[in-house]
Amino acid sequence: MNAVGATDLMVRRRRSPGRVHQMIGVGYGDLVTPPEDEAPLTLLEQRFAAGYEDSLQQAYQHFGPLVYRLCCRTVGEGEAADVSQEVWVAAWRGRSGYHRDRGSLAGWLVGIARFKCIDHLRARERAGRARAAAEQAGAEGDLDDSTALTAERLLLAEALRQLDSRPRSVLELAFYSDATHQEIAERTGLPLGTVKSDIRRGLDRLRRYLEGFDAADRP
Q1: Sign of CA dihedral 27, 160, 9, 136
Q2: How far apart are CA 186 and CA 108, in angstroms?
Q3: Rounded distance between C-alpha atoms, residue 98 and residue 151, angstroms
Q4: Where are the domains of the chain?
């Protein structure tokens, strides 16, 4: 399943609500950057794609914790800083490969981080420093899938956290509690049309983050 497919899975939550909870199984406390308005992030994406030098520092301030957390979870805290640095160097050198119409900058950066983490783990295995872990992990496809799933969970949590409190609460009721639109309206006191609108916009945000992840090329 690709990342966009994961979002489609959430839309079909009544078929498998347990899987939905597993896909978004990361808490908001895992991320330490403050919530941001969408407009400043849009400007940052435009400036990064255009190659403005200060945009690299701004991107690092916004998304550095997200990239670092993925590296920590995948390669371990002891080597996360080095791998994270490789991600930012590769991202800046390959910035011409980022296109806003293909997804979010956050997703694109995490997609690069995924490749860097996988490359690092494979190099570690080849050197024999983690032979036991490699045997437990199994085939190379398992390593790819595990890293991708971790990255997708972090991106979904980041995308949800970026929403205002009301639409975020509506999505949480829809996905975690498997509540219908009508039930959400009754619990929150919101008009039914507002509930539907919040869910639609929230899904658009999730989908764009994950599209950015799928659009990342191996550096």
Answers
A1: negative
A2: 38
A3: 18
A4: 3-164+205-215
Mean pLDDT by 10 residues, the chain (219 residues): 43 33 34 51 92 92 93 91 94 92 93 92 71 50 74 83 86 85 92 92 84 81
Report residue 181 as tokens. 């639109």
Task: Take residue 24 and report the two structure tokens written for it.
Answer: 């978004």
User: To which H or E segment does residue 90 belong?
Assistant: helix 77-93
Structural domain 3-164+205-215, CATH architecture:
Orthogonal Bundle (1.10)
In one-letter notation, the amino acid at residue 52 is Y
Alpha-carbon distance of 132 to 67, in angstroms, equals 26
pTM for this structure? 0.67
User: Which tokens sit at 74?
Assistant: 């995948």
In contact, 185 and 173? CB cutoff 8 Å: no
